[in-house]
Amino acid sequence: MGDTNANEREEGTALLPRFDKEGLVTAIVVDSTSLEPLMLAHMNAEALERTLQTGEAHFWSRSRSKLWHKGATSGNVLKVEEIRIDCDQDALWVSVAIEGHGAACHTGRKSCFYRRLVSDESGARLEPTGDAPLFDPKDVYDK
Amino acid sequence: MGDTNANEREEGTALLPRFDKEGLVTAIVVDSTSLEPLMLAHMNAEALERTLQTGEAHFWSRSRSKLWHKGATSGNVLKVEEIRIDCDQDALWVSVAIEGHGAACHTGRKSCFYRRLVSDESGARLEPTGDAPLFDPKDVYDK
Questions:
Q1: Does A126 sit within 8 Å of B112, measured CB to CB?
Q2: Which whole-number Å values give the CA distances from B36 to A114, A124, B83, in the listed order?
Q3: pTM score, two decimals?
């Protein structure tokens, strides 16, 4: 990591995203007020460009292999307030305000992270945090 | 996403991590008090197991292809306070307290996300947020 290129990428002011072999960087999406993590998604160059142009989060949907304007179906558009990039420029921190129902997760909850890990001698399992759905996915996605 | 297996993965209490083809899930590491994103890393099954067993964050280093006990060299061990998992179980939210210098980034800063994107008609560039290094990497890594 000591070469000039790495130093420019880590300390410089040039945006030099390090896209992976599928052309993607990872985006951590957080609530701009509470900083609560909402979801994890991926952006290709086009998704990042559209996000910067429109102020609304766009991702690359790996499951559907297409550009994804988050909230286009559900109304839960993510208005971008700030984007940060990490040291080696392969991850983004996207601070957003959620429109619509105020839910970023397709299950209807505000955040995708609605379960915590608990572990003891019998192993690890999940425990709900109690985050309740803010909309019924059936009303939004199955029409 | 409507099959029984997906429903169990999304709404159940069983830990069923969806490791990618390289055997990894993505981990968003955040400060347990402020929720500020600190870094993004990856865990394989062994790293997750070690993390749960020891209470200290372990990752899989993709650049070095080895298990990585974060902070073993720098002293900046990450004490885990809570782990959450997302809806489709391919991402973790790891809340930590940083030991040592209180810095999670190898550049010496608390967070890896020390630059924001700014964009205008001439394009996008990066701007420092002003986060200062808490240690000099040369003192820690080049010995």
A1: no
A2: 18, 26, 15
A3: 0.94
Distance in angstroms (rounded) separating the CA atoms of residues A20 and B102? 29
Q: Give the separation between CA A129 and CA A116, rounded to whole angstroms.
A: 7
CA distances from residue A124 to B19, B51, B78 in whole angstroms, order as listed = 16, 12, 20
Q: Which two tokens stand for residue A54?
A: 């429109």
Chain B residue whose CA is closest to A34: B35
CATH number at residue A57: 3.10.20.810
Q: Which domain holds residue B126?
A: 4-141
The total of structural domains in chain B comes to: 1
Residue A113 near residue A122, CB atoms below 8 Å: no
Residue list for the binding site of B for Zn(2+):
87, 105, 112
Q: Each residue of B98-125: pLDDT tens digit?
A: 999 999 999 999 999 999 999 988 899 9
Two structure tokens written together for A44? 């290709």
Integer CA distances (angstroms), B64 to A124, A130, B100, B126, B134, in order: 28, 39, 23, 28, 25
From the list B1, B107, B124, the residue facing A15 with the nearest CB is: B124
Q: Give the Cα separation of B143 and B141 in Å (integer).
A: 6
Query: In whole angstroms, what is the distance from residue A36 CA to residue A28 CA?
Result: 10
Give a three-class secondary structure readout of chain A: CCCHHHHHHHHCCECCCCCCCCCCEEEEEEECCCCCEEEEEEECHHHHHHHHHHCECEEEECCCCEEEECCCCCCCCEEEEEEEECCCCCEEEEEEEECCCCCCCCCCCCCCCCEEEEEECCEEEEEECCCCCCCCHHHHHCC
Nearest CA in chain A to B40: A91
The complex's ipTM works out to 0.94
